[in-house]
Amino acid sequence: MRLATMQVDRILQRGTLRGRRIAPVMLGHDASFSSARPYNKPRYILLSSFRTDVSSHQSIMEKRSQVMIFVCLLFTGVGVEETEAATTTKDQRREAYCKETCDAKTPSRISDYLLPHILNLYGSRAGPQDFEIYAPEATFEDPLMLAHGVKQIKSAFYSLGKVFSESRIMEYSIKENETSPGKTEILIDNKQYYKFLGKDIDVISLIKLYTENGKVVRHEDLWDKKALRNKETIKSPLFASLMEATKRASMFATHALMRFGKDPS
Fold first, then answer.
1. Mean pLDDT across the chain, nearest whole number?
2. Torsion (CA) 26, 29, 31, 34 in degrees, nearest 10
3. Which ranges of the chain have pLDDT less than 70?
């Protein structure tokens, strides 16, 4: 019993750390306990109730503070360094990911922005947002009709779903040329597919898009890659005027049937 009490006293007085154990400085013994009571076990109490003189108590409390500071520096310091390193790594990864995502989503060419909308138009799944690629006074022309303005262009493409049970662009390749500052010519060499009354129809086509400041001002669809028959290609003024009048009449009929370009509900 006395041996155990003396051992605790030596530990408290020395205040050393063995490894990372701090338990010895957290405990004390009752000084009022006497060896005249040989059959009682030694009693251990917290330092807060340790009964000894003032100088011993202050000495133990100072050692206790030193131990607690050491433990905090030992464990917390390493954790902070590891946390800062992990946070730096996560920030770097996040920055790299955002940069790659932004680069992937940002169109590098005007055709990259226009193409998804063109595929929707020819795939009979166009919505109001797909016609925002056109300038207000844009024109669309193919061998059958000539449309002026966004509303007529809407009627031309909304009618595809009414006439054909299926339609889409199957294959395509794109060339983009800058003709002047802010103006580009986009050529889409493509193969279109239509199903009419259960019959499959394949059309080889060349789509020409002329843009100004990012907006399409003219859209041409050349079937079999043949030039359109209009005033620019027909030498006879009378025949050219007749051809244009026929296309305009076809466009007006389609425009009326499609409720003058009203967006589907």
1. 77
2. -170
3. 1-107
Instruction: Report the SS3 class of residue 178.
Output: strand
Residue 5 is predicted with a pLDDT of 47
The 3-state secondary structure of 186-233, one letter per residue: EEEEEEEEEEECCEEEEEEEEEEEEEECCEEEEEEEEECCCCCCCCCC
Is there a contact between 138 and 216 (Cβ–Cβ < 8 Å)? yes
Q: How far apart are CA 223 and CA 203, in angstroms?
A: 7
Contact 169, 122 (CB under 8 A): yes
The pLDDT of residue 84 is: 56
Token pair listed for 214: 């990012």
Q: Vertex 240, ends 236 and 242: CA angle to 5°?
A: 120
Listed in sequence order, the residues at least 6 apart from 207 whose beta carbon sits closer than 8 Å to its beta carbon are 118, 187, 188, 190, 219, 220, 221, 222
In the chain the beta strands, taken as DSSP E runs, fall at 27-29, 44-46, 134-141, 146-148, 166-180, 183-196, 199-212, 215-223
Containing 38, the helix (H) or strand (E) segment is none
CA distance 4 to 11: 11
Cα angle for residues 245, 188, 201 (degrees, 5° grid)? 70
> Which pLDDT value is given to residue 65?
58
Q: Which residue in this structure is represented by tokens 């966004």?
A: 150
Q: What is the pLDDT of residue 63?
A: 58
